[in-house]
Design brief:
Elements: E1 11-12, E2 21-22, E3 31-33, E4 39-42, E5 64-67, E6 72-75, E7 83-89, E8 92-97, E9 104-109, E10 114-117, E11 127-131, E12 136-141, E13 144-149, E14 154-157, E15 172-175, E16 180-185, E17 191-196, E18 199-204, E19 211-212, E20 222-226, E21 232-237, E22 244-249, E23 256-257, E24 266-271, E25 277-282, E26 286-291, E27 296-301, E28 311-312, E29 318-324, E30 330-336, E31 342-345, E32 352-357, E33 363-369, E34 374-376, E35 383-385, E36 389-395, H1 413-421, E37 454-456, E38 463-469, E39 473-479, E40 493-498, E41 503-509, E42 514-516, E43 522-527, E44 530-535, E45 542-545, E46 551-554, H2 556-574, H3 585-592, H4 602-614, E47 622-624, E48 641-646, E49 651-657, E50 683-687, E51 690-691, E52 710-715, E53 724-728, H5 735-753, E54 758-762, H6 768-778, E55 786-790, H7 800-807, E56 813-816, E57 823-826, E58 835-839, H8 846-856, E59 862-864, E60 885-887, E61 894-895, E62 899-900, E63 911-912, H9 923-939
Parallel strand pairs: 54-55, 55-58, 58-59, 59-63
Antiparallel strand pairs: 1-2, 3-4, 4-5, 5-6, 7-8, 8-9, 9-10, 11-12, 12-13, 13-14, 15-46, 16-17, 17-18, 18-19, 20-21, 21-22, 22-23, 24-25, 25-26, 26-27, 28-29, 29-30, 30-31, 32-33, 33-36, 34-35, 36-37, 38-39, 39-40, 40-41, 42-43, 43-44, 44-45, 47-60, 48-49, 49-50, 50-51, 50-52, 52-53, 56-57, ...
Length: 955
């Protein structure tokens, strides 16, 4: 990477080592030298590892011939689809293209400027073509090595046997404490239940053995829940090829399926208190209830999204949950087992969610967003909402008490008892506090007038994310506001509200998950990667749980088959359109599934699955990670500098120092910090006492050094006499410094070429980094007369609408102050002048969406090249069996009258400008300057001077 995203370059390095040097093309993907070494057949774009088949967006590669002697480039292919894998042989020029549907081998006749297809495989792609320099080309096809003889035109498969001890396929024992997916607590709090690496375990809090209840490896068992009577564990498993709900005895044995025939992804088994039924939901929005005999019914079906916060009443006869309404808020619903009726609670005007029944069955507690005091931003006179959630309760019957009503201290036993009986005084009418009485609870609900029987608990509104009830306490979790790009300054905290004393105390801070025991006495929390059990009523009662014995025995090949099927089902279940873009998804599974047998590494499996999901011709279809069994990657201590070889002295000089912005940690440049006596042109003679000559690569001396400082020996001459020893704190990533140098160069160029009238800012993505850069650069340039907004190489995200809303503000009036010349716009922070946006082939995802609606909003023209064209969004849906990741395109984008937009096509510019592949001149930026200046001249934007002072005296 030589410049910013999308600006990769090709390098060459001497066979005897030394520092690589860049080839003259300003940007380049893969390429191949001509036989005489004077030219290169190459693509300026690099997209080879993307699995999007039959791609036709802006990132589709074309091939060029670069003449190294003349410094000239000539485009030789121009199909709407991809041309890749350039090969230059004595017998001619060749490449691979999917213009007929699959990647096939083509020949290019340079003299006649003609292209001819050489292969016709129809089903499998030819990939990674490489030549022998003379007449033969090898490639991968269907997981095998193929060979094509360009003179005879014959294609055949090579029979290659590579001796392999298959170490990465051998079964082994794996500690999986760091792969826990979910956890629960035994009803009495004595054991912990976890799922990890596809198995279900119970382990002791203090003493005893760790039990693996399922021990399979050929299935992904997950989301386990302990029955309230302690006898069974329920869990979800795909052991029959589809996910079903199973139960197993708490101490192990044969698991039994409670469901059959389901073909959906299942979640969150939740036992009824009587241990006779289990509620769970699927990805389609249905809530199911099944008993231990396998009798199942669907009790709810949400049209908008899955309901995930269902909660049983203590008598097991009612279930409550929340569901999104068509206005976007959430409403509570309640199901009656006796008559199968579902009733909505409230009018849906304000969000209500996370229902939880009181232990005595008289109240339904819930969260609701009903605090509307705004938090005002610093850069704009605008608000955000924070700490908006309160805790409330429905009095389920007309005679249910208010446990938080007025109190009056009286003396004498009789008065105290009367107060309790009437629901006043201590408030114990809302919770009997006797575990023996729990089985006698019978819940009733008077629906008429229920909306008027809402009680607000005496707990301050906060960022509250969940509640749970015990006999004596209400547990709730608070946290800080959401920050994009950094952790909140408020730790996630578990608190316990004493229902009798009406005060809260902190149980634990910095947690990332919790589980409450059925008896309400204990809670397990995950904290900094470890697990602790706390006694709810004991301020000092915590125990750390030893997870060291969470061990599985795994044969990778067995797991790989499970992972493949998981990925296939995820796409079936979550793909944004059910027709799978017209492809037969079952047939594609049948095509690729047999190849799993030939996989020898987890990377191979990811490659295979990537090829399968790539058949859907869609962006954002990704698989990655898993148990790669890969060694740790080397780390390099970087100095924020570029080196050049001095052939006369055989030493390295510091050619350039990246300036950075040392006020910001992300842009700290080591050699520019105060006290560092190093300048461009200095010779770098030694690193940490090891002499450095051009026979070595300097980065080899900076590799795997840990986090310690680096000692440099530098001098303005290539000799050690009077050389300086300089201690430097390196960085582990120079890309922020490279990026900053690029945008600062662009900004300075725009400033210089426009006499300071036009501003420039670049938005690198539509996430944390993009907002950071927008805030940093937009507001200081609000007084410019015009603005260039550069989203070339934008990596996407989800904040484009936030940025567009700010850019769409236009001044409706101007404000003036007494005794100074400052003026402001109304609305505040409105930009007054014309804008343009620069786009490129690597403006992607939300970086596609931004320019599309920049134009729709009438903000200005788009300049550059057609964008990537991938806007079907993704989100996480849980890890695969071995911790791998799969992202399924789920969220499409449409426009009235247009249908689906952008996906597979990209956003075409209003003014197409191609940057010369032989030049560093940024023609797109220059055209942006030209367009903005022309609009400034035509519109003459500016702040209005103060009007004449009004005279209001009577005439």
């Amino acid at each position: 990477m030589d410049d910013y995203r999308g600006r990769c370059r090709l390098y060459r390095v001497a066979v005897d080592g030394g520092l690589p040097t860049a080839l003259p093309m300003p940007r380049a993907g893969s390429g191949d030298y001509s036989p005489d070494g004077g030219k290169i057949l190459y693509s300026p774009l690099f997209r080879d590892f993307r699995t999007w088949k039959r791609y036709q967006g802006g990132w589709a590669q074309n091939l060029f011939i670069y003449d190294l002697e003349r410094n000239q480039a000539r485009q030789v292919t121009d199909n709407v689809r991809t041309e890749r894998d350039p090969v230059w042989l004595e017998s001619g020029l060749f490449y691979v293209s999917d213009q007929d549907g699959t990647l096939e081998l083509f020949r290019y006749d340079d003299e006649r400027d003609e292209h001819r297809q050489l292969t016709q495989n129809e089903v499998w792609d030819i990939k990674w073509a490489s030549g022998d320099g003379k007449q033969r080309i090898v490639f991968e096809i269907a997981g095998r090595i193929g060979l094509f003889d360009t003179l005879s035109g014959q294609q055949r498969q090579l029979q290659i046997r590579v001796p392999d001890d298959r170490v990465r396929t051998m079964a082994r024992r794996i500690k999986v404490a760091n792969q826990v997916e979910d956890f629960d607590l035994a009803p009495d709090g004595k054991r912990m239940l976890v799922t990890a690496r596809g198995d279900v375990f119970t382990l002791p809090i203090e003493h005893g053995v760790t039990r693996n209840l399922t021990q399979r490896g050929d299935a992904h068992d997950r989301e386990a829940a302990w029955s309230p009577d302690g006898r069974h564990v329920a869990f979800i498993s795909d052991r029959d090829g589809e996910e079903q709900l199973y139960v197993v005895a708490h101490d192990g044995g044969q698991a039994r399926a409670l469901t059959t025939g389901l073909t959906a992804r299942l979640y969150q088994p939740n036992w009824a208190p009587d241990s006779e039924r289990i509620a769970f939901h699927d990805h389609t929005g249905k809530i199911h209830v099944v008993d231990l005999d396998g009798n199942r019914r669907v009790i709810a079906d949400s049209p908008f999204e899955a309901a995930t916060d269902y909660s049983w009443a203590p008598d097991s006869r009612w279930l409550s949950w929340s569901r999104r309404d068509d206005n976007g808020t959430r409403s509570l619903f309640i199901w009656s087992r006796s008559d199968n009726a579902v009733t909505r609670l409230g009018d849906g005007f304000f969000s209500a969610y996370s229902p939880s029944f009181g232990r005595d069955g008289q109240h339904l507690f819930f969260l609701s967003d009903r605090e509307f005091a705004p938090q005002i931003g610093s850069f704009e006179w605008n608000y955000g909402v924070d700490r908006e959630t309160g805790i409330f309760a429905y009095a389920l019957t007309t005679d249910a008490p208010n446990p938080f009503g007025p109190r009056n201290d009286e003396t004498g036993t009789d008065a105290s008892d009367d107060d309790k009986e009437n629901g006043n005084g201590s408030g114990e009418g809302a919770h009997k506090g006797k575990e023996d009485d729990a089985k006698d609870v019978r819940v009733a609900v008077d629906f008429e007038g229920l909306g008027d029987r809402v009680i607000r608990l005496p707990i301050d509104a906060d960022n509250i994310s969940g509640i749970a009830l015990t006999e004596s306490h209400l547990l709730y979790v608070t946290g800080g506001p959401f920050y994009y790009g950094r952790q909140s300054d408020v730790p996630t905290t578990l608190k316990a509200f004493d229902l009798k004393k009406r005060n809260s105390r902190t149980i634990v801070k910095n947690l990332s998950g919790l589980a409450l025991s059925e008896n309400g006495k204990f809670v397990i929390v995950r904290q900094n990667g470890s697990y602790k059990r706390f006694a709810v009523a004991d301020k000092n009662g915590s125990k750390t749980i030893d997870t060291g014995n969470l061990i599985v025995e795994r044969a990778p090949a067995t797991e790989w088959a499970v992972v493949f099927d998981e990925v296939w089902r995820r796409f079936r279940d979550y793909f944004y359109v059910p027709n799978m873009h017209g492809y037969d998804w079952q047939t594609l599974r049948s095509r690729y599934r047999p190849l799993v047998e030939h996989v020898s590494t987890r990377e191979d499996l990811n490659y295979l699955m990537g090829e399968m999901i790539g058949e859907l011709s869609v962006g954002h279809a990704y698989v990655s990670g898993g148990d790669l069994q890969a060694p740790d990657r080397s780390s390099t201590a970087l100095l924020g500098a570029r080196f050049e070889a001095d052939p006369q002295s055989n030493r390295y000089r510091i050619a350039d120092i990246l300036p950075g912005h040392n006020q910001e940690p992300k842009y700290r440049s080591p050699l520019t910090e105060v006290g560092i006596d190093v300048a461009a042109g200095d010779y770098l003679l030694a690193i940490d006492g090891r002499p450095l000559t051009t026979a070595d690569n300097p980065y080899a001396l900076l590799t795997d050094r840990g986090s310690q400082p680096v000692e440099l020996l530098v001098n303005d001459k290539p000799e050690t006499h009077n050389a300086r020893r300089v201690l430097v704190e390196p960085v582990n990533d120079e890309s922020p410094l490279v990026y900053l140098e690029w945008i600062e160069r662009n900004r300075a160029y725009v400033e210089r070429e426009t006499g300071g009238r036009v501003g420039y800012l670049h938005i690198p993505d539509m996430g944390a980094g993009g907002i950071y850069e927008f805030i940093k650069w937009y507001y200081p340039q609000l007084r410019k007369q015009g603005l260039i907004i550069d989203v070339r190489g934008n990596g996407g995200g989800n904040v484009s609408s936030m940025i567009l809303q700010r850019l769409m503000k236009r001044p409706l009036a101007f404000g003036y102050q007494a005794h100074n010349q400052w003026q402001d716009t109304y609305p505040g922070q409105s930009f007054i002048g014309p804008m343009v946006s620069l786009i490129s082939e690597t403006s992607a995802s939300d970086g596609d969406i931004f320019p599309y609606f920049f134009r729709e909003a009438g903000l200005g023209p788009l300049i550059g090249k057609r964008t990537w064209g991938g806007v079907v969004g993704i989100t996480g849906r849980g890890a695969l069996l071995d911790g791998g990741t799969v992202f399924v395109p789920e969220f499409g984008l449409g426009q009235p009258g247009e249908g689906w937009i952008i996906e597979g096509e990209g956003v075409a510019p209003d003014i197409e400008v191609e940057n010369d592949p032989t030049s560093d001149v940024d023609a797109q930026l220059e055209r942006g300057i030209q367009e903005v200046l022309e609009r400034i001249e035509a519109e003459q934007p500016g702040f209005l001077p103060k009007p004449p002072a009004p005279v209001k005296t009577p005439h």
